[in-house]
Design a protein that fits this description.
It is built from six helices and five strands, in the order H-E-H-E-E-H-H-E-E-H-H. By secondary structure, it is α+β, with helices and mostly antiparallel strands. It has a single domain, classed as Alpha-Beta Plaits, CATH 3.30.70.1700. Strands 1-2-3-5-4 form a five-stranded mixed β-sheet, covered by helices on one side. The chain is globular. The protein starts with a helix and ends with a helix. About 13% of the residues have low confidence.
Amino acid sequence: MLDLENDIQKKGLQLFLNDTLNIFKNNVVGVQTFELHSSQFTPQDLAEMSIQKPAVLLSLLGIKNIVTKPIGYGIILELACFVLADNAAQASKTLCNNLTILPFIENILTILESDEHWQLSQLPENIRAESLYSATGVQVAVWNIKWEQEITLGATSSGNLADFLNLGVTLDKTEEEKKD
């Protein structure tokens, strides 16, 4: 039964990540690529990425805490949104490099701080943004927006889940009912 609950938790977590990515897709204007990304990356990884920029890569960095609730589990996630844009300006002008990406950063921060998008979870907390790679010689400007967010997954406890899975109803019509 525990394996089934873990599967339900994983599927719920995946649905949350997909929904979050869709929120960004529907509200961040001008981005070419939206993808889930497995983790952080290095400047060398940027050269190997074949994605159209500007891009938003959503990543689950970790699970900070899990608490049992009356209905399901409260899971505090550590998330990151990596925003990539080509350096259209000269590589030696760091300020200009950041200017190409700042409208996307501002848009994502506005989404994270708005309560209209997070009906099924808590509002994001501890939001912070930082420029990662926009120095001289780097051909891609990259910003990292990190936050924590609590979601509730698994609307059952082990006992309730077992009862739900074992519940079955068979309806057989009598001969008289079949004639009607």
